[in-house]
Amino acid sequence: MESSNQLIAGIGLAGTARKSRWPARLDFIQSGTGLVLALFMWGHMFFVSTILISNDAMWTITKFFEGYFFFGKSYPIMVSFVVATVITLLVVHAFLAVRKFPINYRQFTTFHGHMKMMRHEDTTLWFWQALTGFALFFVAAPHVYIMLTHPELIGPFESGDRVWTGHYWPLYILLLLAVELHGGIGLYRLAVKWDWFAGPDPAATRKRLKTLKWALTVFFLALGFATLAAYVKIGIAHAPDYGKPYVPAALQAAPQGVNK
């Protein structure tokens, strides 16, 4: 009878408490949502950077996600569904990640002191990941909100207007820095944590992963700033016609007097 009572109370026959599997499950979900979000951001960067090719290229990508080439008509609400999914992943990931943040000033100063004393590179990377993750609470919210509620305002002129005339460019600079640093560090730590690309020498593997991580971070930051500069240039040129959507030359109405 005593053994049964111990088992009901969560105590094994040896007198040791059974460990809950929920922390591991939550950690797995946190890793999974972080991986999906990081890969999404890389894909998103490639999509918006098509403006570096041409206005038509960016317009084509935009209309593809609005279903234009499937239904013969654009449905911007399709973009809203994608954004809603991303927001859900962000909320879940942030809720799980915040469990590991210092919860008060005393814990923060203790951690910061240990970090400075140890001078361990991976610990420093975690600090920057936590800091940029906290920053994303604030700098990502305006962007995802406008994409959720006004998905029709995506396009060469529309995005250029938002960046320049709408004064979003300072926000996008901060967002670019935060998301690329956070995502890059996160992917590196996932690879180490889950033993991806493991080699016979763990130290050498970490060194290679860090080199790859910084190479990717530099690449995406360079691509991001070049893309942002392109939208600023378009926004400045289009400022007198603010609010006028982009229409490719092939779809513009033929001039009067031209046979159709």
Q: How do you describe this structure in short?
A:
The chain is an all-alpha fold and 260 residues long.
Structure report:
With 260 residues, the chain is an all-alpha fold. It has a single domain, classed as 3 helical TM bundles of succinate and fumarate reductases, CATH 1.20.1300.10. 70% of the residues lie in helices and 0% in strands. The protein is built from ten helices and no strands. Helix 7 packs across helix 9, helix 8 packs across helix 10 and helix 9 packs antiparallel against helix 10. The longest helix is centred in the last third of the chain and has 37 residues. The protein is elongated, with a radius of gyration of 24 Å. 20% of the residues are buried. The N terminus and C terminus are likely disordered.
Q: How is the CATH topology named?
A: 3 helical TM bundles of succinate and fumarate reductases
End-to-end gap: 93 Å
Count of spatially separate domains: 1
CATH architecture: Up-down Bundle
